[in-house]
Amino acid sequence: MDKLNSLHSEQIVTDRPDFHAGDTLDVHLRIVEGNKERIQVFSGVVIQVKGTGVGKTFTIRKISNGVGVEKILPLNSPFIDKIVKVKEGKVRQARIYYFRERKGKSARIKEVKKGK
Amino acid sequence: MDVILGKKLGMASFFGPAGREFPVTIVQAGPCKVVQVKTIEKDKYEAIQIGFENQKESRVNKPLTGHFKKAGVEVQKHLREFRFEGAGKISVGTEVNAAMFHEGDNLLVAGISKGKGFQGPVKRWGMKLQGKSHGTHESKRGSGSIGQCTWPSRVWKGKKMAGRMGSDKVTIKNVEILKVIPEKNIIFIKGSLPGAKNGILKIRKMEA
Fold it and tell me: What is the rounded distance in angstroms from the CA atom of residue A106 to the CA atom of residue B143?
């Protein structure tokens, strides 16, 4: 697999931050409408990070007008302008599917405190 | 000349120029050597035989070693024949590599599909499942009746039944090249191709 990815490793975007499930991100998406292009920010909680190399994807979830919205995005997609890590969450699972059933007060993730 | 032998390395993700993500099959296409040329005068048809991947001489039997020696090329692991017009004019020993391919070219790719073993008619021929209820018993994935009655008193030849599936020659037309790395003889082909990893593929450029 690594050998395969090394053949087109120039497609891997290197300046993506290192994040995992439970983290809160701001994903700046490039939206192309006709010949106009604008940036839309999708901020939510990472549910899972899947795959390796060029095909690596992540699932990000947010609550929009009371409805849960999830996006599965390729990490190296050129349509992602940038990813900003807002909060680092403390979770035990690598894939926090249980988070989908949580609402309100229980849908909170402890933040990892850094520095001390 | 627009034919080559390739080896399927595996599948990966690839972002096209517009940013769209495509599934790609990565193929090691060549370098190959022309080992034998068949001409109309001598063989009554035109074709070239090309070899792919060098092999230790001790791994090949003596008649085959002689065949390579006659052509003046290293001992090759795989040999395949391609028939096309004008093949008789190509000289023995010519190197064939992936540099002849370009982005956007359409290919015809043939390979041997993965073996599936002994499979029932539902998987092998796409027959419908029988109902799971309304009195069905002992049979849910069978093919049903296999013929008529007094006439013809036998089962027609070629009746679709259970049996060995896969390991067939599968040809796919019009598969697009998304990227070529000529110095490494690697081509990225959009979509899937027949066979397992490390399987040998016969690749032909299609006329535009």
Answer: 53
Domains annotated for chain B, with CATH where assigned, are: 3-101+179-193 (3.30.160.810)
pLDDT tens per residue across span A30-74: 999 889 999 999 999 999 999 988 889 999 999 999 899 999 999
Distance in angstroms (rounded) separating the CA atoms of residues A84 and A86: 6
Q: What share of chain B is helix, strand, coil (3-state, %, to 5)?
A: 15, 40, 45
Q: Does residue B117 sit at the A interface (CB-CB below 8 Å)?
A: no
DSSP annotation of A113: P
Predicted confidence (pLDDT) per residue in B68-104, tens digit: 888 888 899 999 999 988 887 888 888 888 888 988 8
With beta carbons less than 8 A apart as the criterion, state whether B203 and B96 touch: no
Q: What is the pLDDT of residue A11?
A: 86
**Mean pLDDT for chain B?**
91
- Rounded to an integer, the average pLDDT of B167-176 is 94
Q: Rounded distance, CA B75 to CA B63, Å?
A: 12
Contacts of B186 in chain A (CB under 8 A): 7
Asked if B184 and A7 come within 8 Å (Cβ–Cβ), the reply is yes
Instruction: Tell me the count of A-B CB pairs closer than 8 A.
Output: 37
Which of B21, B26, B179 is the closest to A4 by Cβ?
B26
Q: Compute the average pLDDT of residues A80-101.
A: 92
Q: Chain A residues contacting B, CB < 8 Å? A: 1, 3-5, 7-8, 11, 53-55, 74, 76-79
Residue among A3, A7, A79 minimizing CB distance to B19: A79
Chain A nearest C-alpha distance from B57 (Å)? 28
